Amino acid sequence: MTDRALAVVRAGALTTVQDLGRPGYAHLGVPRSGALDRPAADLANRLTGNPPGAAVLETTLNGCALRPRSAVTVAVTGAPCRVTVDGRPVAWGAPVRVPAGALLDVGPAVSGVRAYVGISGGIAVEPVLGSRSTDLLSGLGPAPLADGTVLPLGRPTGAHARVDVAPQPAPPDELVLRVTLGPRDDWFTPEAVRAFVSRPYSVSPASNRIGLRTDGPALERARPGELPSEGVVLGAVQVPPDGRPVVFLADHPTTGGYPVIAVVHTADLPAAAQAVPGTPVRFVTVSRR
Question: Tens of pLDDT along 234-273?
């Protein structure tokens, strides 16, 4: 049995393997998937000497605990949290050496939602359609981690970064999402469109990797009936029958039958990955189709 592996001692609420995802397969009905907070995942790889796109672990809210079978370099980024090795506090946001058999514990998020665990060599599960990402909607990729899971690791290809702590943006106190209106904003009353870009919303506890759901003013439609199912993109803001906007994230479906009132600029989506339930949300119009 190879020593380039790690055992999952505590899987946490939801820990998945993620990389850059599977862009380019929407015509086959395959979602993009990949790390929700891409900059945090990229940083975890840089800190551990991995190439861009190496697979990392994405935790949700309460972290995870891992035991490597050989010495590895690890970096935890994203949501700030307490990190320990065999009970000793170690740095968050910096490369840390973890001896073979030691217990790496990534604690609950102090703020934010998702932490990223980069490990030298990367997680080396078998790729599906060119990606190692877990896709919760389609079921492609490895299953979410469970206690006792053993994950293979690749061989390190570079030296870890020489930093004490790498700067990272704080999780948002207010989530400001820049949007381009359309393509179906004409399905809503003018009053509803004004409310969408002027009234406050908040992050719903029902949010997940598929979409960030919001609580707030219901948007009234100007047209009855439903759309035929049509293609939707990352960041699309779909409005289901309850009238409350849903921002599609990495595991979103590739088609949908509810009208899309706007599309969020891609650069604003990493912050959405770290917005805890109750975080105020504002949609700001930047341009029109």
Answer: 999 999 999 999 999 999 999 999 999 999 999 999 999 9
Q: Please report the DSSP string for 185-211 in residue order.
A: GGGB-HHHHHHHHHS-EEE-TT--SSE
Peptide bond preceding 142: is omega within 30 degrees of 0, i.e. cis?
no
Residues with Cβ < 8 Å from 288, sequence gap 6 or more? Answer: 180, 181, 182
pTM: 0.95
E strand map for the chain:
5-10, 16-18, 56-58, 64-68, 72-78, 81-85, 88-90, 96-98, 104-109, 115-119, 150-152, 175-181, 201-203, 211-215, 230-231, 236-238, 246-248, 255-256, 260-264, 280-288
For residue 109, the cross-strand partners are 81
Average confidence score pLDDT of the chain: 95
Cα 255 from chain centroid (whole Å) = 20
* 264 phi, psi to nearest 5 deg: -75, 140
pLDDT in tens, 89-136: 999 999 999 999 999 999 999 999 999 999 999 999 999 999 999 999
Q: Which amino acid is at 36?
A: L
The CA dihedral of 205, 207, 212, 216, to the nearest 10 degrees, is: -30
Kind and range of the H or E run holding 41: helix 38-48
Which residues are CB-neighbours of 260 under 8 A, at least 6 positions away? Answer: 182, 183, 184, 232, 236, 237, 238, 239
User: In the chain, count of helices (H) and strands (E)?
Assistant: 3, 20
- Please report the pLDDT score of residue 289 as a whole number: 47
Q: Which residue do the tokens 């779909």 mark? A: 238
Q: Which of 183, 215, 7 is nearest to 100 (CA)?
A: 7
